[in-house]
Model the fold of this input.
Amino acid sequence: GAVVSQHPSRVICKSGTSVKIECRSLDFQATTMFWYRQFPKQSLMLMATSNEGSKATYEQGVEKDKFLINHASLTLSTLTVTSAHPEDSSFYICSAVSGGNQETQYFGPGTRLLVL
Amino acid sequence: AQTVTQSQPEMSVQEAETVTLSCTYDTSESNYYLFWYKQPPSRQMILVIRQEAYKQQNATENRFSVNFQKAAKSFSLKISDSQLGDTAMYFCAFMKYSAGNMLTFGGGTRLMVKP
Done:
């Protein structure tokens, strides 16, 4: 149980385009989802917290207009990188928390984004 | 704000031996959770073990156990009978009860298990 999927696993796009990444909780309802960014050989950096039906809460320094987060249902959150630039290239990971097990985050497999 | 420190960027251990990964944290909270997550080369984050701060008994999960020293704010992970599949990045993480489930991660320790 507690499986989280992400799609796509890898994406290459041209500079200036937008990319959408999906995060789904497959076998539980996720009251809260988180989006992280991870640079090579570094730890996870929290970008934003997403609660179903409400606006995401962004961490300091994260541009909300660039990284659009939508949590439209209890099983799906999306991260859209708008007008992507090469510096946005990174590994993006989502995680989800279920209503019945609030203290454990279950992570998706991650999405590698490369902006050319 | 909470901080989590992993002082060992890299470690190695021979297969079948035991290794301990260190983690210290700083907080003024009295109620919180501590976690160890594993990130293998596939980069999938996997929960290894979890400890509630109010529990004095150290958590164990098969070959994985922790040494939780609340007063010292220390939370080390011991891996017994190391296996090649234990090769991964290991992240220590902190969550306070009232934080909306937010995790604060340490910088990670890269563990290499050698045959």
Remarks:
- The CA atoms of residues 14 and 26 of chain A lie 31 Å apart.
- The radius of gyration of chain A is 13 Å.
- DSSP finds no helices and eleven strands in chain A.
- The mean pLDDT of chain A is 92.
